[in-house]
Amino acid sequence: MSSSLAMKDRFQESERKFGIRFNWNVLASTRLEESRLVCPTGCLYRPFFDADLPAPNGTKPEIMKVTGFPEKCSHCGTLLNRYSGVDKLNAMWRCNMCNSKNFFAGHGNESRRANEDSDIQGSHNGFEVIEYHLPDEITDSLDQDLAFAYIFIIDRYENIDNADKSKSSFRSLVQSIESALQRLPDGCLVGIISFDEAVYLHQPLDHNTTIEVSATDIMKEGTSAGKGSQWFDFNLIGVIYRKLGLTGVVADKWQNSQHLIKNLLIKLDSASRMTVIRELNDLKPKLTRNFKPVRVTGLAILVTSVLLSVSYKNFIGKSILFTSGPCTVDPGRVHSLSAKSPMRSHNAMNDIENVYTPEALKFYTAMAYVANGYSFKDAFDVITTSSKKITDILQPKERPRWSFDLFACSLDQSGIFEMKPLAQNTTGQIFLSETFFDVQFKEMLLKSIFNVLEKKYAFRGNLSVFTSDHLKVSRLISSGCNVASTFQSEKSSDKHSDFISDIVDRFDSTMKKREFTNNLSLNFLDSADTVAVFFHLNTYGSTSQVSTSSPKDAYIQFQIKYLDMSTRSWKIRQTTIQMATTMKILSFLRGSAGGDLKLVNETSHLMKERRLLESFDQKTWLILLVRLLLEKADTNIGYTDFKSIIGIFDNSVAQLIQRFKKPLKGPSHFHSIHFKTSTEDDNLLFHENFNELITYAFQIRRNPDLFSIFNTSPDETAFHHSWFLRADPNSSNLIMRPRLYLLGQTGNVEQEFPLETKYVIGKYGCFFILDCFFHIIIYKAFDPATGIGKLSLHHSRNERSNDEDLDIPMKFLSNHLSCYNRSLTPKVIISQTNHAQSRYLFSRLASEDPFEQVPQTGNSGHNSILKSLRNLFVSNSSDLTEHEQSVDRYYQYIYSLVQKFESE
Predict the structure, then answer these.
(1) How many structural domains compose the chain?
(2) Is the Cα dihedral 612, 615, 618, 623 positive or negative?
(3) Of 698 and 8, more confident
(4) Is residue 84 in a domain?
(5) Considering 792, 812, 842, which residue would you say is the last residue of a domain?
(6) Torsion of CA 868, 870, 873, 875, to 10 degrees
(7) CA nearest 652: which of 897, 879, 874?
(8) Which one of 448, 476, 494 terminates a domain?
(9) pTM of the full predicted structure?
(10) What is the tens place of the pLDDT at every residue in 208-264?
(11) At how many degrees (to 10) do helices 357-371 and 376-384 cross?
């Protein structure tokens, strides 16, 4: 096995063992080396990578299970790990992050030395991942019958055009919720809130009894009491408390909650379940001819937030919003009441033509902060004060926390972009569909309504990232809320800047301040969720400053404290990894040569270059680059101009190629560049680890789910981006570059093709499947001259009269793509030759491909990325027209950028 293939196996092994994948698996030691990497060093971290499926060989990753408290460094807060130095004689250990020495906590106290039974103090145990089951303490005690709560927030509006139908959209929604309720276990809590022009809190045990809350009444009472008339006025929250008959006191135990006493939350059992279902079925829709009626979605979110914020200590739950249109009045308005108000576009939002967006974003962001345990006063202070950030405030420990799931099923825009912070900051999910009849909606609802005891989920989680001297945490990008760093407590606030980078780079938005922290609040986390973590390298100015005494390894520790509902206990999972630096490579060469070599000479430079190239994970590099750019594009007024984002993307790809395309000269056994291409530069050589870089880049650039947002609404963009920012590596790869399959007569894959039109045209009597993650296209190819094999499809839609015709592809979707077991159920689009919806397939296929595709078993050198530059010339164009580009033109364009950077 070649060293390159061995390194690729290490990429997969790291993901299998730790749930971690880096873009560069060797860290730069000098600033010059760091600058060549183009985008920051980072990784994708999946905390519960082991909770879904076993590894291919049938074994689970090795995780050490410990009952007891972890040993924590008193200086930096990291936990004892396999790389720590241990002095058992003196009951001390040395922290490998900050090099400080610590006494073992509770020395002589048997209850806190339970760890010793598992020999955790020994550095030879070999476990990078350790999970602690924490004993109960007074400060973190939990009720052993702690209940999980589900709050259903239901939009009652229905257009009158649907009123005469045998099955209305609203009735379909109610029946879907009823089906979901049937799956919930006894013991959980359920609440129902509905809204139209007012908000109604249902009390199912008192049949047909509700508490009505209207915006007019709240504002009137607040103004008459001299308390102001702004929705960001904390005094108005007190008005809502009184409307609901609640005090602002959080109960110690869930059984003592005011909500149970007032029947606003119902504990499920066989009898109460039927009562809740009866209440649901008695809900009547509010019929309207107006497509933008007085819809108080924002007020419903506010009332829900007030209700849950004073529930009980350690409250955990999920609020699920169902809406069929936009919010049209404050708070949270995204559209005016006028039926003639224009649809929101990316350009309009970028030019601040939609006057409601900035205030709506502030409002829903504030509600997300409240869902993360912050008070209304703190949340309002942060969004109304430019100098204050949420990371300036320590997150309360036992305050209620919950997530928001958003289901918008409408042909109209529903304001999902403005409401996105509700889901993204609380680790909730967003789902868009055209109607509540959609099968995909029903499946996603069932996935949202889960039994918390069936799988391993993390609730009320906090992820903290710690580093050794060679690194600083730069940014965290994921679903979740950035909260105050672990160093911002009173006793260690002076250390914040020592461990967390405050450097602003070209990937930062000029319109949104970044929060510098190493701590992420995760109200709900499942095994598929991934966090992108970026680092700033503490590098040397030049190789002359590097010495054999310089740090050769860097250490990173991920800590996540979470509530495990299956055991009703707190747990901490820590993962500690060791990363080699280029200094270590140089030092090794010096040592192996008996000290006769200079630390940096031609031979050592070649070896260092080889190791650096071999450590490059091209797909992870692209995933992290795209996450950085999507985060940059998302601002406080809308998405920024994507043309500039695409320009940064193209330049980044070209700069990376330019900086690593130099031919290496030296001893043959040191060269890692295997393949030569006949371009204009006869000495142009490139490493095989880059062999798919431009191919993926081309697909990313034209991807309508990521960058190519022409004719896409801000709501659709927010939906796609929210899923990509939390997707695991496999799903991220699929979003970036779809996969095209040709099915045989038995339903097996005959071949997987490149995304090129020429592989589809001219083939008849077969099915093609294009898997794009968000949707899957089933395409039946038939001979238009004979019409044999044609499906009975509507010309522009995908209704079908004979399901048997689709048995083969549908079985493939279920058995091979496992699309129904994914976290997001994809929309299935059925099309065929000359069918209107075939555009979904051909829009993702390029018209030509300049390099030969070979089987994976062939020589990987033939897939070298620069082989695709063969016979190309430098494009005279400095830019590409997005909708005219082909693969060939894109390669020309990247090659021209490479030469441009070379000449600068």
Answers:
(1) 2
(2) negative
(3) 698
(4) no
(5) 842
(6) 0
(7) 897
(8) 448
(9) 0.89
(10) 788 999 988 888 776 654 444 578 888 888 889 888 888 878 888 877 888 887 888
(11) 150
